[in-house]
Write a structure and sequence with these properties.
Layout: E1 5-7, E2 10-12, E3 19-24, H1 28-48, H2 55-77, E4 81-86, E5 90-95, E6 102-106, E7 110-119, H3 121-124, E8 128-132, E9 136-140, E10 144-151, E11 156-160, H4 164-177
Parallel strand pairs: 9-11
Antiparallel strand pairs: 1-2, 3-4, 4-5, 5-6, 7-10, 8-9, 10-11
Length: about 180
């Protein structure tokens, strides 16, 4: 049975059961290549080294290159893209190919949803999963449109995602459908 949503001026169809959107940053692949190059350099040093100054400096160089490469590689691949899903219960954000880091926010904890026409890495101190005092938390994978959720505890959660306006409309409709739901309008 299809439940209709009553709003001032009539009845509208309910929001879709699932909304999904994503945002991608192709520039992150260049950084990932730099991380892979660091790993390759570490492996090359370990395999083909003729260092005569001792084992300790060689091991420090190998471990340093491999560790730096892995950190760069994971840090960039985790934020090459983001997938946002909104269903009847929650708003969920998954980053990168492994879906980590992940954030799930129950819609019952959302007070308001707003469209943000211009979110930039500069506002948040770079790409990735960010926290800034007075601004809240964000997942920023590229500059451009995004959405901002105001949570019941007063904090904001921002995410860059394509077609953020549609996500905001759907979240607002879902919030109106919650018991006592006039939030998000």
């Amino acid at each position: 049975m299809k439940h209709h949503l009553r709003v001032e001026g009539g009845v509208i169809d309910p929001p879709p059961e699932l909304w999904s959107g994503r945002a991608t940053n192709r520039a992150q692949w260049l950084l990932a290549a730099a991380g892979a190059a660091c790993i390759a350099l570490g492996i090359e040093l370990a395999v083909a080294s003729s260092w005569t100054s001792g084992l300790a400096p060689l091991m420090m160089s190998v471990v340093g290159c491999v560790a730096a490469g892995l950190i760069i590689l994971y840090g960039t691949l985790a934020f090459v893209h983001v997938v946002v899903r909104v269903d009847g219960e929650a708003f969920e954000v998954r980053c990168g190919h492994m879906g980590l880091p992940r954030r799930r926010i129950l819609l019952a904890h959302v007070v308001r949803a707003e469209f943000a026409p211009k979110v930039t890495p500069r506002q948040w101190g770079g790409w990735g999963y960010r926290w800034r005092p007075g601004m809240g938390t964000a997942v920023v994978v590229r500059r451009g449109e995004g959405l901002v959720l105001r949570l019941g505890d007063g904090r904001d959660f921002t995410v860059t995602v394509d077609d953020a306006e549609a996500a905001v409309r759907i979240i607002r409709a879902r919030l109106r459908m919650l018991p006592g739901g006039t939030a998000g309008i």
